[in-house]
Formamidopyrimidine-DNA glycosylase (Paenibacillus sedimenti), 269 residues
Amino acid sequence: MPELPEMETYRLQLTPLIQGMTITGVEVTRPKSLNVEPERFAQALTGSRIVRIDRRAKHLIFLLATGEVLLLHLMLGGSLFYGSAEEKPDRTAQVVIDFGTKNLYFIGLRLGYLHLHKLADLESLLSKLGPEPLESDFTFDEFQQVLKGKKGSLKVTLVDQTVLSGIGNCYSDEICFYAGLLPIRKVPSFNIEELNRLYQAMRTVLHEAIGYGGYMDSPLFAGDRLTGGFDARCRVYDREGEPCMRCRHPLIKVEVSSRKCFYCANCQI
Ligand SMILES: [Zn+2]
């Protein structure tokens, strides 16, 4: 499932492509991906413009000139493609938004959704989400505050969207590895020095992943060389049995509350 760096990569790359562009048409092949009737959806979008694209947690928010917003969550298996009908990958798009000759394709939107809301309703819709880990005002003190009272394992706590926004299965493991800490340890067992390492690792890994375009395996547009660049740079995720790049010990995979979890049992403490 795309996490913060994947959605941020989409936002950064999509903005110069569609910001300010007028929507010329809409096709919906899976009405269930929407929260309104396809006719109402098409009516709200057609003729309007994309004013801005924001990201919150694993959501993208498309702000329309009408004052309404599109709230996107790709969930598992979802991806985006921007281009002409000829360039589009051979996968079913559940929603297509047209911008003249180029279109934005919402692919694999089966668990995911693209909902139309009033801008004023957005805050309450997203109110349960924890803080954004890369916000400049999210300090180490704040980080300690959000972890205070959490009793679960580090893995489960990091992926809990009500605690922190945007971190999922891959980056929770990558952050723990970078910090040299075991994801299976309970949160109260960490001392302040370890928590500081964790905080720094979180910011470093997420920034690094955005810089390399996240791990999505399909490009956003023809000629896109950024998207997916971080996939080969994952240090532990999906690398069961491979040697740890720090100590050469084979990496292991366990299940933590039915989530896949990869780490080095030798150098993560
Ligand atoms: Zn190791």
